[in-house]
Amino acid sequence: MEIKNIIFDLGGVLIDWSPEYVYLEVFKGDRKKMQWFFDEICTFDWNENQDAGYSLAQATEDRVALFPQYEDWIRMYYGRWEEMLGGPINETVSLLKLLIDNPRYRVVALTNWSHETFPFALQRFDFLHWFEGIVVSGEEQTRKPFPEIYQTTLERFDLIAEESLFIDDNLRNVKAAEALGIQGHHFKSPELLNAFLVKNQIITP
User: Fold this and answer.
1) 4, 53, 117, 150: most buried, per Cβ within 10 A?
2) Is 136 exposed, middle or buried (0-12, 13-18, 19+ CB in 10 A)?
3) What is the pLDDT of residues 32-58, one digit of tens each?
4) Closest CA to 99 of 192, 1, 3
5) Tens of pLDDT along 73-102?
6) In terms of CATH, what superfamily is 5-16+86-199?
7) Does this model's pTM top 0.70?
8) Is the peptide bond before 19 cis (omega within 30 degrees of 0)?
């Protein structure tokens, strides 16, 4: 079916975000120690819970209570959150502009992002205001890959799943979208996304 709607993820696709920007400095370049910290203390799952609306302050206190010996490092996670924003992924932003400017497509975003920190991103990145709308997981009190947030996105903008393309750097999230009939692209680089869009005649070379 012809693609009429493009749904973009933000972090890792259009915005470079990584806690490494803070913790490589904290751990003096020791990647093994930094990875241990992410695997055992401030984990991916723990951070995702905040993407679903849990309070950053409470999440921090919860983790400090579990690991009081690492309190300073834990408090840095959200205390220095803005330093984890590395900037726009300019090549993908250029592709976004092509799609935004094409009247054939409606372009929205669906992001796992804390409602407490997302306003900083809105202030920092002008291109976030190009979208017809953005569904922010923290505001919805759920997150990808749960089907409810995809359904919310389709219903809010009156989109048909089979006419929609979802672009995300997390394969788990792409597969969840595909399970609902949304076409998916697992983002690995702007170059591969460009090739995919050209191959599927969504943009011209």
Assistant:
1) 150
2) buried
3) 999 999 999 999 999 999 999 999 999
4) 3
5) 999 999 999 999 999 999 999 999 999 999
6) HAD superfamily/HAD-like (3.40.50.1000)
7) yes
8) no
